[in-house]
Structures are given as C-alpha cells and as structure tokens.
Records
---
Amino acid sequence: MDLDALTALAGNTLVTAAVTDGFETVRHKVARLFGRGKPETGIERRLDATRRQLTAATSGELENVRAAQASRWQTRFADLLEDPPEIAVELSIIVAELQSLVRDVGGAVRNTITGGVVHGPVPMGRDFGDITIDSGPYPRAIP
C-alpha cells in the first residue's frame, strides 16, 4: 500500500474508532506510535479533542466533522511517516487492529424509505440479523 493510501485509511479508521468503546486502546496505541514507544501527551490531547468533537456533533454536522478530523489525522500521519520507514509498518499494524475493532463493534441501522410507490418493506444490506419490519400505514399509490 502506498503511503498516501495508508495515511488516508489511518485517518478514516482512527476517526471511526474514536467513538467506540475501544477508544482507550486506540488512544494508547496511537499516542505510543507518535511518541516512538512512549505516550505522546500532545497526541493524547488531540485524540481526546477528536473524540469530544465527534460525540458533540449533531447528526446534521457529523459527516463534516468526521471528514475534517479524518483529514487532520491523515496529515498528522503523513508527517509522522516522513521519519524512518519502519513507522509505516507500525502504522499498518495499528490500522489493521483498529479496523478489527471497528468491525467488531455492531450497531443499529435504520433505513427509512419514502416517496414513490411503496408496496411493502424494502430490506437493503448484507448479513441481516435481528430485523423488525414496521408495516405501518403506508400510503397507497393512486393508479
């Protein structure tokens, strides 16, 4: 993987993992990476600020906050990778661990379909689990 792709993936994965229950693990690993084995307190503060901003964002602004934070972390990771090449290997390992963390965190997904003609439920996705289909009062199409 080239370094630009790695830093983009790292930034996005970190932002996603920042709002999980595994945040302390994320915080510890990333701070130690930047501190070359010792926790970097400045990075810990930035990670905490990232988490605060993400959790404080309203649903309308969340995507913009996520994108801005991911971009900032991508830049920080790119600056970090200007140093010895083994840092890229360490970052790749951390990203893989974070992706596993994010993948293991489930979540509720709710799809609401409106508009047009609706004749019944429309399940979308992959790997369906517990599904509740509300067959409430859908408007009938007028022919």
---
Amino acid sequence: MLARLQQVTTLGLILTAALWAGWLLHAGEPLWAVAGSALLIFGYAIFLGVEFLLLRVVNRDDPAPPASARQLLHAWCGEVWTAPLVFCWRQPFRSRAVADWLPQPSARTAMRGVVLVHGFLCNRGLWNPWMQRLRAASVPYVALNLEPVFASLDAYPPCIEEAVRRVESATGRAPVIVAHSMGGLAVRAWLSRCDAVERVHRVVTIGTPHRGTWLGRYAFTRNGIEMRLDSPWQRQLAALELHRQRLDPRGATRFTCFYSHCDNVVFPASTATLPGADNRHVAGSAHVHLAFEPAVFDEVLRRVAEPDLSPSERRAISSA
C-alpha cells in the first residue's frame, strides 16, 4: 500500500513540474518555468530546513550535546540527498528488489540472523543497502513491512513475531533486531506484549522516539498520535515494561540506542534514548541519514558475531 502511495506521489510531482515548465515555456516565461519546477521538485528541502530550525530551538534545554550551525548544515545536506533516494526511489519502486535471505534449516549457518524493522511512512525498501551488505557478509536477514500503514502501534507485534520466527527457524538462534524510528516502538511493544525478551539477542534502535517526539503534536494518524511526547500509549508501554523488568531486569540492557542532536524528526534528542540501555550519540546526522551511518552497521555486525550467553552468564546478569 505505501509503495503504491509513494509511486503516485512521486510520479504526480514529476508530472506537475513538467506540465508547469511546458506551459510557461510555451508562454515565453523561461525563468518562471525553471523556478516553479525547481520549487516543486526541491521544495522538500525548504520543509526539512524548517524542521532543523525547530529542532535547534527545542534542543536548547536537552541534555544531549548541542549541535553547531556547521553540524546542522551538514545534517541538512545529508538529509536532502538521502530522503529522495528513500521516499522517491527505494520505497516506491524498489521495495521488493532485494529479497530476504535465510539459509535452509538443514544447512544452518553459524551466524545469527537479523530482523529489519522500518519506521513511519516507510517500508522494507528503506533497508536495501543494508540487505545487500548483510547478504555479502553471509548474514541471514528478514526485512518486514509494518501494516496497516497508519494503524495503532499495537497492530504491529504480529508482523514482528512472524519475522522473528522465520529467522529463528532458519538459524536456530535468537536474532538481532534493527529498528529505525517508529519501528523501535513496535519492537518494544512486541517484547512486552508477547513476553519475547528471551527470544532476541540484541535490539539496535536508530532514531526511535522512545519517549515520543515534539513533532508528534502535529500528527493525525493513529500511530503518529501515539508518538506524541508522553502520550497515553507511551505511558501504557512504560508500565508494561516496568512490570516485565521486575521479572527480567535485563530487558533494557539488551538495547543499543543510536540518537543524534541533528535528528530533524525525533527531538528533543534525548527522547531517542532509554534508561539502562547502551545509548550512543552520533554527531551531525539527520533522521533518515542516521540509518546509514557506518557506526550503526558496524555495531550490528559486531552483535551478530557475538556468542550466545551461557546459562551461568545469564544467571550472573539476572542477579546483578
């Protein structure tokens, strides 16, 4: 569904720009033809610029390191380049270009697998560069689509459950889950509501609004409203996790949370962190671009190669 919607949006924008340019060129107004077409095609860069101005104001009182003007400019340039690649090419036209890769159960690999969970207004096409690199490294993976697109976050645990089961069946090991943006909240909902903490080796979140985002106040979809700062859904999830942590205190320690002071979607910046998790700040990286930072991929490869904990190690962590 999302791929089709983004296909219509992308092609409609290109057609509108072409019609505008053709009409004004025919009318003898070449400057207006070029200016109007450029605004239609590249107007998203202005919208991104407004987001960066807002995050700079909102982040003033946040404990995350403040971003310099140079870092914000660098992040804006990175997002201006990355966003159309994702939203106008990979997701609408290439979401099925790279298939999931799992070994046959009879030929299990020694490498644990990866489950890739996208965020809001995204699909599995976001992960195309990741899937190509994981396949080259012989790391099994499944990239899922969270559907329905605009449903409550509570609708997504079954999608994650199915993907995790596929990786478990193929590798015989608990996977590493990598989640971008809203996907991290969907994973937390799955962990809490399906009692699934023991079935995941590590969770790596990238720009996830763990405590909501300031921009959520402008959301009107069900899942967008649930990502508002301190929303009822956020409080309910926190209560469930608190109950789970009394039974298994290792829950948060399984998380590595990458966040940035230049995240133009999830801010204040520290809302993308979790107490007790391995929270890692990435300087000068915007929201979508953050998913393609080398440090993030390297961390996932490191976690994939880790051995399983022995029973004695599990007991030691549990009693710590």
---
Amino acid sequence: MLTITKRQAAESLLLELLSEKHHIADKILFFERKYQTEFETFEKRVTERDEDFQIWDDYMEWKAYKNMFTDVLKKIDSIKNEDFAIN
C-alpha cells in the first residue's frame, strides 16, 4: 500500500492547479490580444451591440475562462493556506 502525507498531496495538487492556471491565463491572453482590450471593456461592447454570433461565442468562452481563473486562484489559496481535507 502506498502512503502519502497531506503535504505531499498538497504539493501534487498545487502543481496541477498551477499548470491549470497557466493554461487558463494563456486562453485569456489570447482573447485580450485578439480583441486588443480587457474582458470588462469587451463585455460592455458586446452587450451593447447587435448580436454577432462569432463575437458572442468568444464572449461566452472568455467569460468562462475568467470564471475558471477565479476558481483556480481560490483553490490555490486554499492549498497554500492548508484549508483542505483528505478523505
């Protein structure tokens, strides 16, 4: 039987979360470069104009990445603060 410590589990999970954070940040940067603006400005522009399906699809995807980024940051903080349990 393999036994790992809580610290080892945390380090492994933290590495996975940091990798995920990097991947999500790359996706967000792609949209920032594509539209040459920050998400909040883009969101305002999208919601104030007639619907363009390609732009709307990008908006929904970008918004999802922004939400995922926030979630992964919270998880990273939880791991760093040892605010998690192993079952």
---
Amino acid sequence: MDNAIELKDVTIERGLFKMGPINLNIPKGYITAIVGPNGSGKTSIFRSILKQTNITSGEINVLNERIDDAENKEISQRIGYLMENQSFFDDGLVAHEKADFHRRWYNNWNEHIYKNCLHKFGISDNIRFKNMSKGMRRKYDFTVALSHEPELLILDEPSSGLDPIAWRSMIEVLNAYMDQGERTILMATHIIDEVKRLADFIVFMVDGKLLGMYEKDELLQNWATYYVEVNPHTQAVIATLPGLLSQKNIGSDRIEFTTSEAVNADALLKDSNITILNRQVLELDEILLYHMNKTTNKIFG
C-alpha cells in the first residue's frame, strides 16, 4: 500500500507542549481520521505537514516528497487544507476575493467545482466574511479547499458549525471527491458519527502520543464486551483469551470481560462450550477512553 504521508520519528516541542516521537503512515487513496481530546497534537501534525509549524526532529514525506525548510510550491499545489479556526485576516474580504487569489495561485483551479459547491451549499461569494455565520463561512472555506482538486485534503474539524443538512451535503461532496481516482483525506474530528460514516482508518492520539492506528471496520468488529455464563472452566478459558482488556465477576453466575479480538474470542468460547449471555461492541469513544486510561495507568471498566 502506497503512503500519501509518512512521519518518521517526528517530535515537536513548543513551550510546555511536547509531541512525539510520532511514526505514522497515512495510506494513499483512503480517508484516515485522527481522534483524540483537545491538545492531543492533531492540529500540530497538520501544521507540520503544511510547513506552518517547524518540527523539532524527524522527517516528513508528503506525496513522495520530503518536507524540509525549502519552499516547495509544487507540493503545496497538491494539498487542500480546511483549518479548524477561521482566519480573522479574511474578515474584511468579500468571499469571491479569496477565490480570486486562489484562482491565480493554484494551477488546477476548477471553476466548475467551485460553482457547484456554492450552489450545493446554498451560499453566495458576494458576502463579506465578517457578515457570514460560522456555518456559512465553514461551507465557503471547504469549497475553496476543494476547488483546486487537491490530491491530499486535510480537514480539521470539518463539520464544526454546520447544521445536519449541511453536514450531509459535505459528506456527499467528500464521497464524490474520493471517487475521482487516488485521492486521500486526513481529518481530525470529535464527531463519532463522522468517523463512522467517512473513515477507512482511525488513529488515536492523546497528550502528543500516538496510541494506535486501526482499520475502522476491523476495529469496530473486534472490540467488544461479553457477559458469559460461569462453568467449572470459564475462568481458565477467559485467562487465555486473545486481546483481553478487563474482566470482573457479576454475581456468582456471570463474568463480564472486554477484548480487542472479539472474532477470536467468539471461536474460543464456542469451542469451550461457554454460553455467551450478551455481547456488546464498543463505541469509538469507549475505545478512545480505554487508550486514554491505559496511558494514565487507570483501570478500564
């Protein structure tokens, strides 16, 4: 699998904030979501990829080119970026003035995409940014980020400020974007449903540390909590379960346990004639909580 982004031993130290070392490969042609609480380092990764933040050490490769101190206009032309916070420098501009700048700067600017997105989102580019609502501004900035047909699209909290209808429209646009060849999206979001709907891969980050990267469907299939019936060998079997994360007795006749390898656990329990009373797959926020608890040596469950 080819990679759109490669971070090798990347560290960032800025005041009290420290991130890394981060080793992370973002596969080309897929949507990867970075999930974690505020201050985890998600935006710092984005800004380092875009050369808006200098890394302390390590190496970053984007679209098969190394990102270093030299200006690399060619790489910048191939990347679209939707930042989390709106830039106050644009407040005095009429929206189309920002598009005019991007038309001149980006060689692949596509006026058809620009006009179609404006129509789909129901927004006008004849309004000053300072007079736009947060949701309207979000939709416009998203439109501009897409309109030069970037190979790599970086989205920081893309649905922030959007109503449910606009959010669904954004998902439709992103799905259409991904249908056009080997495009790649790297996104950060707090919206669990957004991750479920869009992501192919999920990266967990907490406190500047990378906690793991998973294929989404495999992750959601494999993390589960079980309630099983006690028999003479239940405890011994559970102790051998792959991916066992926690366990506790529920009264005298049931045991609750959580595993990150549910598919293998299902087979082992069946072969051991242990009755599964209930099986609940974990939500993404519960899986993130496990990772957070693990880093602080707390007990999960």
